[in-house]
What does this fold into?
Amino acid sequence: MIRNPVFCALDTTDPQAALALCRRLAGLVGGLKLGLEFFSANGPEGVRAVVDGGLPLFLDLKFHDIPNTVAGAVKAAVRLGPAMTTLHASGGREMMAAAVDAAGEAATKWGVARPQLLAVTVLTSISQGDLAESGVAGPVVDQVKRLAALAQEAGVDGVVCSPHEVDVLRAQCGPGFHLVIPGIRPAWSAANDQKRVLTPREAMAKGADWLVIGRPITAAADPAAAAGRIQDELAEILP
Ligand code: C5P
It folds into this structure.
């Protein structure tokens, strides 16, 4: 059986809907992504209820604060046993290094696997103008590359990056650095509000390790069938 690289994004505040999807998608996706929306509504208990459905968890909370606070937040998050969790690279080297240390310590303490720590570089909602307004000169891609390099130096395991950054970051960061890609659309699904998209196969061919896919699965008439179709398409190219 292939390692399924798809994490299905459950962008909902409804724990029952999340758990129902989790059960339907078992064996058809590699895991689930829960983010700030779900966490703000349901807290750790809500996350635990969904994780009890049996799939690996990508807990996308995008931490960004002083190193001590981020370390504490990471320790608390690790207790939930996520496979992956996120923080902002713009929090700086010291913040990221503190998060890495905290993840290791907490994993040992709670007897769980250390999650992959993934950095967010520049949010894809940020335009060239937004970046300039915040005092960062130069093209967005330069800032993405700079922050990815900083994250790698700080010991972070990888980055979440947009479809148009995959090749450039794979070339810069080498094979061991994890690239997690949202904005994925199978050829048969709607783009929704995603502007730059890749198909699951294209993203994997460009060097992605994990794919975040939401609405093509969650908004499908039959989510399990949609996830199965993506799994079958990937099986043709993955070892
Ligand atoms: O439904 P869709 O496949 O567009 O969902 C993509 C998921 O990935 C959402 O949870 C979205 O917040 C997240 N994401 C994204 N683009 C980024 C970073 C995260 O779409 N640059």
Notes: The radius of gyration is 17 Å. The mean pLDDT is 95. The chain is about 45% helix and 15% strand.
